[in-house]
């Protein structure tokens, strides 16, 4: 058991193993408090699995207290959580490396995982007294989400950016900045909002959490410890849940490549909705003149004259026509051409024959009914006229018999 981070305090520090994974500092302190005053208890965590390794270091204020604990463990083994622990005196790393052999140095904590448990309050501890069940459930869910994210090596714990949860819906950015400014210089304040539920001023409804970034880590740590689970900040039943923010290294590197984007929000126009933009485009299309396809002439359409159907020609040998003599003058040729009559089979004054009418020219059912009624009325009129002629006295003929002469 080697202590490399701090001196063993001349035999005052003890190393213990075989601890239960769910054991906490309070359990160890309660067990060894009978031997003397304890200076500190430090548990070793597995960074990959994010849980205790089952080993810890304990230092007494007096060396005699550590000796009595070791003597008691030799006589009757000490148990914590139902498990018998192994207890030894811790050895300083300087005493181990006497032969100047290279030591296996652990790498730097680039992901700041030692800050992940800062601000965590577990159920059953002194800090959890007075906390509502709803707040404890929120803290439990937030811790599970944090552990899930930190399993990915691209996520890390920020040292100067805090995440503030469980805020009232009416809490604004100005109030949050005023709350945090007393602990140090605040660089950025942002409350996450739902744009779909915006008010008349265009400000979305608060989602109940936000972020505060400080210029220094010390200021962020002081703000976390002062505001986290403080019943005087919001309400006693709804206390703030404050911890260090979990950041994505990939997203931050992409933003750094793009560079700082400065936006002039004073001159920015409010973004229109999709329906408003669609209506504007529709009005623009209506106002624009329709474009004619290429090759189409802009002149007025010319009405085509009715064509005369040509007579069918009989198949057979073509008759040769005699050519007019060359010495015939042109005036005689014109007169002879005018005197030639048109073929008898095709009258010149007739209209072109049509095979059928278009659908637009065909009468519909209503027009047919009107026409039938008109024809029937005309027939009845003819019948009445004929009856009138027969019944009139002046039109009746008188026939004389042969013997009346």
Question: What keyword list fits this structure?
Answer:
405 residues, alpha+beta, four-stranded antiparallel β-sheet, 10 helices, 12 strands, 31% helix, 20% strand
How does this structure look, described?
The chain has helices at residues 25-32, 63-75, 93-96, 133-150, 173-181, 217-227, 249-258, 274-287, 330-339, 365-391; strands at residues 2-3, 13-17, 38-46, 51-60, 79-80, 83-84, 86-89, 91-92, 155-165, 186-198, 204-214, 241-248. 31% of the residues lie in helices and 20% in strands. The chain is an alpha+beta fold and 405 residues long. Strand 10 (186-198) and strand 11 form a beta hairpin. The longest helix is centred in the last third of the chain and has 27 residues, at 365-391. The strands form 4 sheets. Strands 3-4-2-7 form a 4-stranded antiparallel sheet, with helices on one face. A 4-stranded antiparallel sheet has the order 10-11-9-12. Mean pLDDT is 76; it is low at 96-100 and 264-268. It has 10 helices and 12 strands.
Write the layout of secondary structure elements.
Layout: E1 2-3, E2 13-17, H1 25-32, E3 38-46, E4 51-60, H2 63-75, E5 79-80, E6 83-84, E7 86-89, E8 91-92, H3 93-96, H4 133-150, E9 155-165, H5 173-181, E10 186-198, E11 204-214, H6 217-227, E12 241-248, H7 249-258, H8 274-287, H9 330-339, H10 365-391
Parallel strand pairs: 1-8
Antiparallel strand pairs: 2-4, 2-7, 3-4, 5-6, 9-11, 9-12, 10-11
Number of helices: 10
Order of helices and strands: EEHEEHEEEEHHEHEEHEHHHH
Mind telling me the C-alpha Rg? 54 Å
Return the structural class: alpha+beta
Strand content: 15-25%
Give the terminus-to-terminus CA distance: 172 Å
């Amino acid at each position: 058991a080697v202590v490399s981070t701090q001196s063993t305090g001349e035999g005052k520090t003890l190393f213990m193993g075989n601890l239960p994974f769910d054991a906490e500092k309070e359990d160890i302190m309660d067990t060894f408090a009978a031997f003397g005053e304890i200076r500190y208890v430090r548990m070793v965590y597995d960074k990959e699995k994010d849980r205790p390794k089952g080993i810890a270091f304990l230092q007494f204020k007096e060396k005699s207290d550590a000796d009595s604990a070791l003597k008691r463990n030799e006589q009757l083994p000490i148990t914590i959580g139902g498990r018998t622990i192994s207890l030894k005196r811790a050895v300083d790393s300087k005493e181990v490396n006497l032969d100047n052999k290279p030591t296996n140095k652990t790498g730097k904590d680039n992901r700041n995982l030692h800050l992940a448990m800062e601000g965590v309050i577990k159920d059953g501890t002194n800090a959890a007294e007075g906390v509502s069940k709803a707040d404890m459930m929120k803290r439990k869910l937030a811790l599970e989400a944090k552990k899930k994210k930190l399993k990915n090596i691209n996520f890390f714990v920020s040292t100067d950016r805090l995440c503030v949860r469980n805020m009232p819906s009416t809490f604004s950015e100005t109030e949050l900045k005023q709350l945090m400014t007393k602990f140090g210089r605040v660089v950025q304040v942002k409350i996450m909002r739902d744009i779909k539920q915006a008010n008349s001023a265009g400000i979305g409804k608060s989602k109940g959490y936000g972020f505060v970034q400080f210029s220094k880590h010390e200021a962020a740590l002081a703000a976390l410890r002062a505001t986290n689970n403080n019943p005087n900040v919001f309400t006693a039943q709804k206390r703030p849940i404050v911890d260090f923010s979990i950041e994505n290294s990939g997203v931050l590197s992409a933003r750094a490549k793009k560079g700082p984007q400065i936006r002039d929000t004073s001159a920015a126009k409010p973004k229109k909705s999709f329906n408003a933009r669609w209506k504007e485009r529709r009005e623009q299309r209506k106002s624009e003149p329709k474009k004619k396809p290429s090759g189409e002439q802009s002149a007025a359409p010319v009405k085509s004259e009715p064509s005369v159907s040509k007579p069918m020609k009989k198949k057979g040998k073509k008759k040769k026509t005699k050519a007019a003599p060359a010495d015939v003058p042109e005036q005689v040729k014109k007169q002879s051409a005018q005197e030639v009559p048109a073929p008898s089979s095709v009258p010149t004054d007739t209209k072109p024959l049509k095979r059928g009418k278009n659908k637009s020219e065909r009468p519909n059912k209503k027009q047919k009914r009107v026409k039938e009624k008109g024809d029937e009325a005309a027939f009845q009129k003819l019948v009445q006229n004929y009856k009138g002629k027969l019944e009139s006295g002046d039109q009746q003929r008188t026939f004389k018999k042969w013997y009346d002469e």
